[in-house]
Write a structure and sequence with these properties.
The protein is an alpha+beta fold. It has 23 helices and 16 strands. The termini are far apart. The C terminus is likely disordered.
Length: about 575
């Protein structure tokens, strides 16, 4: 077997194949061999009696490798790494990387041709395994190693940072045009379109199906020495998106959620999205890379108060994935400077968790506070009717105000609770607090929408009613947004005192609940209790993150803004 291997080495050397291609075809697939192939051949020469023959065969390579188009030579690999270094890779703050490579299509054809040639010439050596099956792995290993050494980054299959390398070959189309004749049924396109439609998978599929004789008719013998070597066409760096979540509070009745544009003209000057994007852009990335999503939306003239509305921002191709607690707090303070918007609990969230924001949009309960007026003269009687009424099931036709963008339909919605109280100093004004099913048109419930909503507040109290202002006080349960970041984020742990972002989501209640659980556990089975855990939890309770806001806390500022 050793003699056969030496014969193949000598033969491939005469064909002017590069060192790494030779190693593939003699089935020495250990990674250390590909790291320094010259070292292996030097070691081999010292073990052979006929050193001159082997040395001569290694010296005669003057042309481009007919198998890999010189992609696996050290000089080409170094050139590739230089091209990567000159790209925009340095603007990304990342410790690891993953390489994705597009090879010239000719490489697969050349690889198949030499595989058939060696298999026929040395059948005993290749009887258990075919030659040249790992070209892609060899190239990736070789270039990954050089990138790691040059840029001080580690390669990882799970990296969120991808280096896309497109390698081209000047005569690639010429080889592919010949390849088309192997199976014309796979290529029903015109000559000009065929090349771009032929993918790596199609080439491999045809090569696996075609017989040796068919292949030899189109590609007789071994591949010819190429006139030009493969070169990099494009290097493109791309980072996987990150997701930033939180809750926003809106204090203005002239602020829409997302830009409202008609005919390229903004109907409303500012939006929730605009204000948040402006603040985030200073710390994370450009606005054109951001996408805003939320759990439902409120009308322009409706304030969003209480615990806020859950939202997230998708940021494509971010330059960094490390956003500190302090940076998020600065973003929140920046947003608060607008005086019309605030954001709480802003932090990184997992892609798999953002579905929690959208989950149950129609099943959540929402609490509203409306300022209403009525034509009735006995306000106390009207308030008594409302407070004594109990739950209401509504049949709501699509409101007139949204018919231009929603299908005509009748939807069943529920008012779970209603409480009313008079406004001091006004004979016909009252505050109405409601707990409703998500998706209920509250304004239409109050004024009836020309009896398109039945029953409505007017039919309940016996007098026409209308709505003056509306606020959202609460959306669902706080636990729905807690789940987005609780425990699962690598920087978030209930037992990490330095992580204050998590406290904003969970508050201190979960910690207190944990302490109560530990107390019961200690009473029942004291030997199973980690005595340090209660101490850690008590420390967390004593160091709430609210104390860390500079000067006036965000919560104090919000209280002042919402007192009106």
């Amino acid at each position: 077997m050793d003699n056969l291997r030496n014969n193949i080495i000598e033969h491939l050397g005469e064909l002017e194949c590069c060192d790494r291609c030779i190693l593939q075809h003699i089935l020495l697939l250990e990674s250390e061999n590909f790291a320094n192939p010259q070292k292996y051949f030097e070691k081999l020469q010292t073990q052979e009696d006929n050193k001159e023959t082997n040395e001569e065969s290694k010296k005669i390579k003057k042309n481009i490798c007919r198998l890999c188009l010189d992609m696996l030579t050290d000089s080409s690999l170094d050139t590739f790494v230089e091209a990567i270094e000159k790209s925009n890779i340095n603007v990304y703050k990342t410790d690891d990387f993953y390489v994705n490579i597009t090879y010239p299509k000719s490489v697969y054809i050349r690889k198949h041709a030499i595989t058939l040639y060696l298999d026929e010439k040395y059948p005993e050596f290749y009887k258990d395994s075919a030659p040249c099956e790992i070209f892609s792995k060899v190239f990736k290993y070789s270039i990954n190693r050089k990138i790691s050494e040059k840029l001080n980054k580690k390669q990882s299959q799970r990296s969120n940072f991808e280096i896309n390398i497109d390698v081209g070959y000047s005569d690639d189309e010429q080889d592919v045009q010949k390849f088309i004749n192997l199976d014309k049924s796979k290529f029903p396109y015109s000559n000009k379109q065929q090349y771009k439609h032929i993918s790596r998978n199609i080439i491999i599929e045809v090569l696996n199906k075609v017989s040796k004789d068919q292949f030899r008719k189109i590609f007789p013998g071994i591949p010819a020495i190429p006139n030009n070597k493969a070169e990099i066409n494009v290097v493109k760096c791309l980072a996987a998106p990150i997701f930033v979540g939180g809750r926003y509070l809106k204090f203005s009745r002239k602020l829409c959620q997302t830009p409202w544009i008609i005919g390229k003209v903004k109907v409303v000057e500012l939006s929730v999205q605009d204000i948040i994007f402006d603040a985030v852009e200073k710390y994370i990335g450009k606005q054109e890379k951001m996408t805003f999503s939320s759990s439902g939306r409120e009308d322009v003239d409706v304030r969003m108060l209480g615990n806020g509305r859950p939202f997230y921002i998708q940021i494509d191709n971010p330059k960094t994935r490390q956003i500190s607690f302090e940076q998020f707090r600065k973003i929140e303070q920046e947003i608060l400077q607008s005086k019309v918007l605030a954001v709480l609990h802003m932090q990184l969230v997992y892609k798999s968790d953002i579905n929690l924001i959208k989950t149950g949009e129609e099943s959540k309960k929402k609490t509203y506070l409306a300022l209403c007026n009525t034509k009735g003269t006995n306000l106390n009687e009207i308030i008594e009717k409302i407070n004594n009424h109990g739950p209401v099931e509504l049949a709501q036709k699509t409101p007139i105000r949204v018919l231009h963008r929603r299908n005509m339909d009748t939807r069943t919605k529920n008012i779970y609770e209603m409480t009313a109280k008079p406004v001091q100093g006004h004979e016909n004004l009252f505050e109405l607090e409601m707990v409703t099913q998500a998706g209920t048109y509250v304004k239409e419930f109050v004024h009836g929408d020309f009896e398109r909503t039945t029953p409505n507040l007017g039919t309940i109290v016996g007098h026409a009613c209308d709505i003056i202002t509306l606020d959202v006080k609460k959306i669902g349960e706080r636990t729905s947004i807690r789940k987005i970041t609780k425990i699962r984020h690598p920087q978030n742990s209930l037992f990490n005192p330095s992580n204050e972002a998590l406290y904003h989501i969970t508050g201190i209640q979960p910690i207190q609940e944990r302490l109560e659980y530990l107390a019961k556990k200690f009473a029942n089975k004291p030997e199973n209790l980690n005595v340090m855990e209660p101490l850690i939890l008590k420390t967390q309770l004593e160091t709430t993150p609210r104390r860390k806001y500079p000067e006036k806390s965000l919560y104090d500022s919000l209280r002042e803004l919402t007192e009106d």
